[in-house]
Structures are given as C-alpha cells and as structure tokens.
C-alpha cells in the first residue's frame, strides 16, 4: 500500500509549509512540564441525528462552526543558504515568493512566510492546529476569520507523532467549536471542511465521510485518519472538519493526489485523538502514551482459520516483552485481542492507537481468544518511552514431499548466525538461510535471515525439528511465527501461492 502510494500519488500536507517530524526547539515538550492550564472545552458526545430530510441550506451549521476557525500565519528567519524549490508542483502551490534564498553572499537575512488554519477550542484562547503548520516558526500570528482581530500566539506544544499542535492566544469570550465523539461518525455522514485554502480567505466545502481508520501513508506514527471527499487544499491544514450539526470531528491534515491538487482524497486527524493530545500537552507539556508491551499483527482470513476464529479480524500477539505490562498480566504470543474495554478491535492499528490514547497506569480489560476460547485479561498499562517509539554446510531444506516449504533452507541458530544477523540471545528458533524466489514461502514474505520461531503454533528449536514439523503438515496452509528486522509476525504460507 505504502509503496504503491509513493509510486503513483503525491502526498501533500494541506498547509503552505514543509512537513516535518521534528519537535520544535521552542516547544515546552522538551521541558517535561507545561505552564498552561487545561482548557475548558465544549463537548457533545451524543449520536448524530441521521433520521432527517435533505435541506436546501446548511447555513445554520456553518454559522455555528465557522467563527471558531482562524487563519494562522507563521514566519521563519532563514539564516542558511537554502536550495530553492524548482519543481512545477512547488511553484504552483507555493508561488514564487520563495525566490532567491537568503544566506547567499551579499543578501540580508529574510523571512519565509507560511499559512494554515486552526480551530478555537476554548473561550480563553486555546487553538488546535497541525504540527507542520507551525513547525520551525519564529513568530505565529492568529487572525479571526472575519479579519477583525490579530493575535500573537504562544506555542503550547506539538506532537509530531500525530501532527497535532496547540497554540494559546490572550483573549476572552472567543467563539468556540463544540467537539463531537469522532468514534461515532459513519461512512456516508455529511461533513464540512472549513479553513483558509491557498490564502483566499475562509472557505467551506461539503462532502461525506469516505472512510474511517485510514493508515499506511507514513505521514505520522499514529495514523487513524478520517477520509473525506470534501475539497481540501493547501492552507486548509489545521482547519476544522465538522459534522452536519456543526461539531468538530477532525483536524484537516493532508491530501493524496496525482496532480498535487484536490482530487477528493482528504484526510483529517479524528477529534478524539486531537483532544487527547491537546489535554496532554496543556497538562504535562508532552504526550504520555500507554504501553502494553507486546508486538501485534492484524489477523487476516487465512490466520482466522488457523487460530480457530469465527471472523478474520483482531490483533494477534506475536511477541510479549519480558517484564512488560502484558507479560505481567499473563498475555501470551498467539493470543488474539478482539476487544479492549468493550470496544471491538478489528486490526492491530486500532489496538495500538487505542492503547496510545490511554494514560499510563490505566487498567484496561482485554478480550482475547486463546486456543479458540475467549479469555478476559486485565492489564495495567505502562508508559511508552520516547526511545521505544520501538548458509553454511549444516543448512537443511524441505524435500519435494512438502510443497508448502519446498525451496526453504534453514539452519540451527549459533553464535555466528546471531552475530551476522544481530539476533538477540533470547530469541529461539531456526535461521532461514535461503528462500527460492518461486516458492510459496517467498510469496508469503519469508526471507533469508528471518528466524522461524514456530510452525503451526508449535515452537521449533532446531533445523531438524523444523523439518519434521513442516513434513507433518498436511494442510493447504502453514502458519509460521517469524522474527524479521521489522519485528515478530505471523506468515501464512498457502499452497495456491506456489509459482509454476
């Protein structure tokens, strides 16, 4: 998915500025505490009223939400020589004001200007926007949508992992947006994008929720985007995505396009996620995230059959960290998490995002399927640390009698293999020495250097044992637990993936 997007599409942040994932140097995030008070926000978590007729106008909806959406102008002093953007795409969207870059001999220091949008969420001046809108800014100016008032904004903090930032202006009795429960939106719901696209002034576009839970773009670490076909363009970044009752359901963030312009693929950070980040930044100056202490993978239909599941959804645990919260609570590799605190878990992303939005020290209740039977396990979450955001002569192979693993050579794990492939001593299994490119195992994703830890959920400790387990399988699928450089995951090797 990610490779396809990069090869066919242009991913564009919807703000006139360059996207980046670094913490701002002047952000209170670095201090570990915040001098700001928790904002008093307006929340309406009731269900959207859907049983109604189409209306001839949405003026009341826009009148309710639009005054809370502001323009954000930033400036950054450029002290070094920068290579000017040369592509037609950048000239089209960013204009020629980038021109000759300061820092060249004989040129004075200049300032690069940028703009985006933001949403007022408290009467005393707290504003949510995108990290990439304010990244690197020396000065941040906020302008009311009617142009009646300008403010100099202070940066409360940023969270590059979600692309959410919080600003504070000194003001009272500001118009605020009401925040909805973004978990309750549904595909097909009417939505409105409000912002300052391309600097033309406040604009409102209408569309529907096209999809929920979009991820895999590589834009942020925690991706759970709402997709909409409401027109979003550069300058809309940080603006509001509201429902048909004028409540905030998302912060507009980026578009995906072949041309660089709007093509009906806009994405917004859900309001629930943005609100959690906002609360953490204002209270602590940084975002504290829960830690489950496991590695998970999405269950697909092939795995569902092999794990005795009724449906092909859930998050299967592939690895449990020693002494971690999950291990202490009794979670095991092979457990399939299907619910967390009563909320269904469809895939690993949902579980990961839900845990990340839960404060450390909170006890969550997981429903897992173990050996085909449901089990309830309570886990007290730990705190996610910043740095964790994280063939020789003895080789053996399967003979032609085992079609599914034919073409795979394995060897016992020894010190030489561990050093060569950087495999920790606690990892057990057999090393994959060679995988024929036309084999079913290769099609499933098995590669040389991987470690097979289990076959059909049976642990393996030697090459001979692995060969034996592989030959014993008489199914048209084999389930492998494999450790790769990216982590531990399950692979399903299927007979119909054989080539030739």
Tags for this model:
alpha+beta, 7-stranded antiparallel β-sheet, elongated
Structural overview:
With 500 residues, the chain is α+β, with helices and mostly antiparallel strands. Helix content is 16%, strand content 34%. It contains eleven helices and 31 strands. A seven-stranded antiparallel sheet has the order 7-6-3-4-5-9-8. Strands 25, 26, 27, 28, 29, 30 and 31 form a seven-stranded antiparallel sheet that branches. A six-stranded antiparallel β-barrel has the order 11-12-13-16-15-14. The longest helix is centred in the middle third of the chain and has 14 residues, at 271-284. Mean pLDDT is 79; it is low at 1-10, 15-32, 81-104, 386-395 and 398-402.
List the helices and strands and how they pair.
Elements: H1 2-8, E1 10-13, E2 42-44, H2 59-65, E3 69-78, H3 88-94, E4 110-120, E5 126-130, H4 131-134, E6 139-143, E7 150-152, E8 154-159, E9 164-168, E10 178-180, E11 190-195, E12 203-214, E13 225-228, E14 240-243, E15 247-257, E16 266-270, H5 271-284, E17 290-291, E18 294-298, H6 301-306, E19 315-320, H7 325-329, E20 336-340, E21 343-344, H8 348-356, E22 363-370, E23 373-380, E24 382-383, E25 396-397, E26 408-412, H9 415-421, E27 430-435, H10 440-444, E28 451-455, E29 458-459, H11 463-472, E30 477-484, E31 487-494
Parallel strand pairs: 2-10, 10-15
Antiparallel strand pairs: 1-15, 3-4, 3-6, 4-5, 5-9, 6-7, 8-9, 11-12, 11-14, 12-13, 13-16, 14-15, 15-16, 17-24, 18-19, 19-20, 20-21, 20-22, 22-23, 25-26, 26-27, 27-28, 28-29, 28-30, 30-31
